[in-house]
Amino acid sequence: MTVLDLTAVEAVKSMRNGDLKVSDYVEIIITQIKAESDLNAFITFDEFRLRAQAAALDHHREAGGDCGLLFGLPIAVKDNIETSDYVTTGGTGALKNHQPNHNAPVLQKLLDQGALVLGKTNLHELAFGITSNNGVFGPVKNPHNPDMIAGGSSGGSAVTVAARMSPFAVGTDTGGSTRIPPALCGIVGFRPTIGRYGAEGAIPISHTRDTIGTMARTVTDIQLIDQVIMDTGGSPPLTDLKGIRLGVAREYFYDNLDREVAKATDHALELLTDLGAEIIEADIENLSALNEAVSLPVCLYEAIADMTDYLETTELNFDQLIADMGSPDVKGLYQAIRTDPPVTSDGYLALIKEDRPKLTKAYRNYFKKHNLDAMVFPTTKIPARPIGQDEAVDINGTEVPTFSAYIHNTDPSSNAGIPGVSVPMGMTDTGLPLGLEFDGPVHSDVRLLQIADIYQKAKGPLPTPRKKS
């Protein structure tokens, strides 16, 4: 195993113990970032700043200073999360010079424990899409096959972890953005219960749905970061899955899956059964209609209001923002909803007060009625598709809209505000990763991560991406 193969937990332990200097670790990562630059994962990367900060940490340790829980850990930060040392572009033209004077609160908690900002990562423009085919900064490329999408919107963050350019990354998730890219790139992605981390300090889409989330190669790494963010010492470990009840809602989450996704999911369910979990075949009644009623109307209505508020912290107005957008899908969407909002203000209030509670109640009743610890399903219906298929993709011989194809399984839990974690579950015959998602009741984050951790350790690692010669 090389230094680049160290997990976040292993790297921090080595640096805290003095077995590995932060400067040496950072230098190896810098070399890897340069070697993988064609993947276009970063928007901003300052190797000189990084070296200086690493040297300062080494000096601090050598002088007997306290080493935080994340001492020396370089974290790739999605470029819609505010950083005081780097511009925060949101992946859009008008914000290329946007320089916040503070770090997002969640990020600051990590930095306070000795972590470093590695750089700012590429994303789908303004985080409003799932391909990370960015019209301003160029497309993010999948490290397992650079012709394929990395997923979005946190595509750059996921790629840095998968391609060993960073041990850990943070992103944002509105409808699947810290789960879809990890699934397509072969790593772990976590969306916490809404409000657990919050979304303060991130360029917004929808305050009802937005949250900061995390990405790493192992669930164990995600658990460490969760403990730091939540200021907890961890929980009693879950040693096995005996007695754990996992719901399988086939009517919605298993409908018209890509054949290889379906096959891998069957194998995953078999493994979970072998590990002692009980698979409960049960659907969430009327889920499709309940989710459809609130999903896009709430998101699109809040997108205008929330972005308007955010622009007041900059020197820009909405016309300037739209004029400098480079991605046709994002620009067209913002132009459309600004001219013709999806719902009236009264209609929006009804969605929040009446329709969304129906969705959250349906999930709550589902977990309670069947006495479930979590539910399990494939994170995406299809593996990564070629860059450029932004409008439509093929599923089993039928063309479907790209956006809905990828967000289908991650969207309902995003609207309901429950936690979800995507874990690698296999590879296609052509070498593309596939993800398995576990969703749990509100505030079941710790138990959910424990379940996912046991599954991942039993499954074992997926093949690493291509190796540079």
> Which whole number gives the mean pLDDT?
97
Number of helices: 16
Round the Cα radius of gyration to an integer and report it. 21 Å
Q: What is the subunit arrangement here?
A: single chain
Q: In whole angstroms, how far apart are the ends? A: 17 Å
Give the CATH architecture. Alpha-Beta Complex
Shape: globular
Provide the CATH top-level class. Alpha Beta
What is the CATH topology descriptor? Answer: Amidase signature (AS) enzymes
Order of strands, widest sheet: 1-3-2-8-10-9-16-17-13-11-12
Structural class comes to: alpha+beta
Number of domains: 1
Q: What proportion of the residues form beta strands (DSSP E)?
A: 15-25%
Which percent bin holds the helix content?
40-55%
Q: CATH-wise, what's the superfamily?
A: Amidase signature (AS) domain
Count of distinct strands? 17
**Major beta-sheet overview:** 11 strands, mixed
User: Which parts are unreliable, with pLDDT below 50 for 5 consecutive residues or more?
Assistant: none
